[in-house]
């Protein structure tokens, strides 16, 4: 099937290209709008002249879609507007009017929210920021739609301070959020009678449902899974249970997204099938299907993932109504076009969006190929083969993305899918039924007990699969080049599988050689790389000495250091890591590094040297500088912030370079 022959697919690819251009090469909003108007004017002129058959119209239409993607992305970023709150003069006493838009997953210390800035000092503004509410100073958590008057300092988000650390700043920027503020109870006043939004009502209803479910006789772990499975609330899942679902390749079950909405769509279609026999029954069935899908989205809180999934499967429901399987790719492309253009172009950079469409696209493409290769006559065997085929197709679709973002692959994913997915429709159906009965306070105890048992059994199955550690492949290094080559490799493998000819076989072998060659090159680079780094970690000192794939870690807290360097080890292809207590001094490329800890003991040096301050030594830094004359002073995360401020000022006074890892990031020693 020549996918690029379909207009919706070409249009969607061009729109994506435009969004990527807008992301990497952003133009001022007025320029994007002006160029887009000119392109539409030219396109309209060609249309009026009925010059729509030649290549000029096709090229101009393609250019217009690319420009539309650029404009869509740029206009969706409020930071490009003149009245963005960051461009209005703000001080520590500026008064901000905020509206809470979204509640994010909490951590052990704080609850985070996304808030819109409505005004700054009574001046109308736009933009969103991250609100951080420390749990130890919060008398009451905030809710969606709550409006606040705040006096607090807005700060820009900081990039990661250690190599290969999760870049939260970049993640939030790709969601249109560039600033944050910390909010204690004394920093804000909650306004009465705030304006309400549909998402706010949905979140309120979801909270009511969760409170009702808590009154039922569910086990703690079962209740946390039910909340995740049906309502998209994963905050209460224990770390052990969540890790089990990840290792078993079943973590997608815990996110209310494409899988759940797809199964729900099939369930609704099955229940409404008798309506097809009445006049206009199919149209009524389509209307009710879409209505039920969005009703489920509403009770699940209208989170971004559920909105995206329902939008996608609304188009799929329409494709099923048309009953034209050949249009599946068109419908999928149209849904992506609609979501990116109308809902949010930033979704293109979100992992959930990428994995959802990669999985659905792969199922549409790969599942028929597998069924044509083998179609068992036995009904039971055929059903199992179809389930396995869907699972294989979906895993092939998301495999490169999973390796790129999560660096692991569950070898027994098909077992989890064969044992759980067939019953997921029943689990979802029973769960929705229990939700409505609980809201009416008439949920029967036997039904609760049966459902509690089913969820408990699912947890045990997942736990058993996760325990087969031999089949869980972790710590797989996989970068962006391998991501691209991986998809090219899978694509041409499928082409060679479906249409075996010399050209497709040679292309597949060519991409295989490219993938292997690049991987061998990365291995060679890793074998020959040497570096010495001082990392940043609160209440700990971590010094890395890397020689090829061997890593020596000098630290005062081995347990915390292991968590810090986990990503570093994966990305840098480290095969052996050893831990040692940190010493008082090191010789690095002819330059001495003297470490002064809490004892405050230091020795005069004859040659040039650097000083590393750790564990907040109580020293007179001014006298130390005059006595020893170091070439540079370094401080890591084990020191008190008040000491850092004092040391920084002293170094500035004596014109001594000062590097604090908490502000400037990790320190790389020159070893050349």
Automatic annotation (TrEMBL):
Topology term for the membrane: Multi-pass membrane protein
Domain of life: Bacteria
Signal sequence interval, chain numbering: none
Residue intervals of the DUF4131 domain: 27-187
Protein's UniProt keywords contain Iron: no
InterPro entries in the record: ComEC_N, Competence_DNA_uptake, DUF4131
Subcellular location: Cell membrane
Pfam families: Competence, DUF4131
Transmembrane segments: 7-25, 31-48, 250-272, 284-300, 329-349, 355-371, 383-406, 412-440, 447-466, 478-497, 504-521
Domain called ComEC/Rec2-related protein: residue spans: 229-498
Keywords: Cell membrane, Membrane, Transmembrane, Transmembrane helix
UniProt-listed NCBIfam families: ComEC_N-term (TIGR00360)
Protein name per the record: ComEC/Rec2 family competence protein
Origin species: Maribacter flavus
């Amino acid at each position: 099937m020549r996918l690029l022959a379909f207009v919706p697919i070409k249009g969607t690819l061009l729109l994506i290209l435009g969004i990527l251009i807008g992301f990497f090469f952003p133009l001022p909003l007025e320029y994007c709008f002006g160029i887009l108007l000119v392109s539409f004017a030219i396109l309209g002129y060609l249309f009026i002249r009925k010059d729509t058959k030649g290549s000029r119209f096709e090229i101009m239409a393609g250019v217009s879609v690319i420009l539309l993607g650029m404009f869509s992305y740029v206009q969706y970023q409020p930071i490009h507007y003149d009245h963005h709150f960051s461009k209005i003069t703000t001080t520590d006493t500026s008064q901000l009017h905020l509206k809470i838009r979204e509640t994010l997953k909490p951590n052990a210390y704080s609850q985070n929210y996304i808030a819109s800035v409505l005004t700054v000092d009574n001046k109308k503004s736009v933009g969103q920021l991250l609100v951080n509410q420390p749990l130890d100073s919060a008398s009451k958590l905030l809710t969606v739609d709550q409006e606040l008057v705040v006096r607090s300092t807005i700060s820009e988000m900081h990039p990661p301070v250690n190599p290969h650390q999760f870049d939260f700043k970049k993640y939030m920027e790709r969601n249109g959020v560039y600033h944050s503020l910390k909010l204690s109870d004394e920093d804000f006043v909650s306004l009465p009678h705030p304006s309400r939004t549909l998402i706010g009502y949905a979140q309120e209803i979801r909270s009511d449902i969760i409170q009702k479910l808590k009154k039922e006789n569910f086990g703690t772990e079962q209740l946390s899974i039910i909340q995740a499975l049906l309502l998209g609330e994963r905050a209460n899942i224990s770390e052990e249970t969540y890790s089990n679902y990840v290792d078993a390749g079943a973590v997608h079950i815990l996110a209310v997204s494409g899988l759940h909405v797809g199964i729900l769509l099939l369930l609704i279609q099955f229940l409404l099938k008798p309506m097809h026999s009445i006049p206009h029954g199919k149209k009524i069935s389509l209307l009710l299907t879409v209505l039920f899908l969005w009703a489920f989205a509403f009770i699940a809180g209208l989170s971004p993932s559920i909105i995206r999934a329902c939008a996608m499967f609304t188009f799929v429901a329409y494709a099923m109504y048309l009953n034209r399987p050949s249009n599946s790719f068109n419908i999928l492309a149209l849904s992506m076009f609609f979501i990116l253009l109308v809902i949010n172009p930033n979704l293109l950079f979100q992992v959930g969006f990428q994995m959802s469409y990669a999985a659905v696209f792969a199922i549409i493409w790969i599942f028929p190929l597998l069924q044509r290769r083998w179609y068992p006559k036995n009904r039971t065997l055929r059903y199992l083969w179809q389930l396995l085929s869907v699972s294989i197709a979906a895993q092939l679709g998301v495999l490169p993305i999973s390796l790129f973002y999560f660096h692991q692959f569950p070898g027994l994913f098909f077992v989890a899918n064969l044992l759980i997915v067939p019953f997921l429709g029943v689990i979802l159906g029973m769960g929705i039924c229990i939700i409505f009965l609980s809201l009416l306070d008439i949920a029967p105890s036997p039904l609760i007990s049966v459902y509690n048992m089913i969820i408990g059994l699912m947890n045990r199955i997942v736990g058993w699969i996760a325990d087969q550690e031999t089949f869980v492949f972790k710590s797989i290094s996989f970068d962006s080049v391998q991501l691209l080559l991986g998809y090219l490799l899978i694509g041409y493998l499928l082409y060679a599988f479906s249409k075996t000819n010399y050209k497709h076989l040679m292309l597949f072998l060519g991409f295989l050689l490219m993938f292997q060659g690049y991987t061998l090159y990365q291995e060679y680079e890793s074998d020959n790389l040497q570096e010495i780094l001082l990392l940043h970690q609160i209440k700990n000192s971590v010094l890395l000495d890397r020689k090829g794939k061997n890593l020596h870690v000098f630290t005062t807290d081995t347990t915390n250091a292991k968590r810090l360097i986990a990503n570093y080890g994966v990305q840098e292809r480290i095969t052996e890591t050893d831990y040692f207590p940190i010493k008082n001094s090191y010789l690095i490329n002819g330059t001495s590094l003297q470490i002064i800890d809490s004892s405050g003991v230091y020795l005069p040096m004859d040659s040039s040297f650097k000083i590393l301050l750790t564990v907040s030594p109580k020293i007179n830094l001014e006298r130390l500088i005059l006595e020893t004359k170091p070439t540079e002073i370094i401080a890591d995360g084990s020191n008190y912030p008040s000491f850092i401020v004092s040391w920084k000022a002293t170094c500035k006074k004596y014109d001594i370079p000062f590097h604090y890892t908490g502000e400037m990031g990790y320190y790389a020693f020159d070893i050349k």
